[in-house]
Specification:
Layout (H helix, E strand, L loop, with lengths): L1 H19 L7 H17 L3 H17 L3 H15 L1
Length: 83
């Protein structure tokens, strides 16, 4: 029983790391779409453990992901205020 759980948890970890280690130049929208597609596939195959992990990854993207253009603008605005 422990081996299937280990395989399931390994799959979840790989999915999360794979979805979050997407190319650095990719924007938040593309990350969301990629994770949502993986969630659909996991739902098709009834992989509930993977679904839970991917939904957590999606929540993290929604919470913490900042597009590069917005990040640069924010840094520029912050720099102007402190000068």
């Amino acid at each position: 029983m422990k081996i299937p759980q280990f395989i399931l948890l390994s799959g979840i970890l790989i999915a999360i790391v794979g979805s979050l280690s997407v190319h650095a130049a990719q924007n938040c929208y593309a990350k969301r779409v990629a994770i949502e597609n993986q969630i659909r596939y996991a739902e098709m195959y009834g992989n509930t453990g993977k679904i839970i992990g991917l939904k957590k990854a999606l929540a993290n993207v929604n919470t913490y992901c900042v597009d590069n253009s917005r990040d640069v603008k924010k840094r520029n605005q912050t720099g102007k205020k402190t000068r």
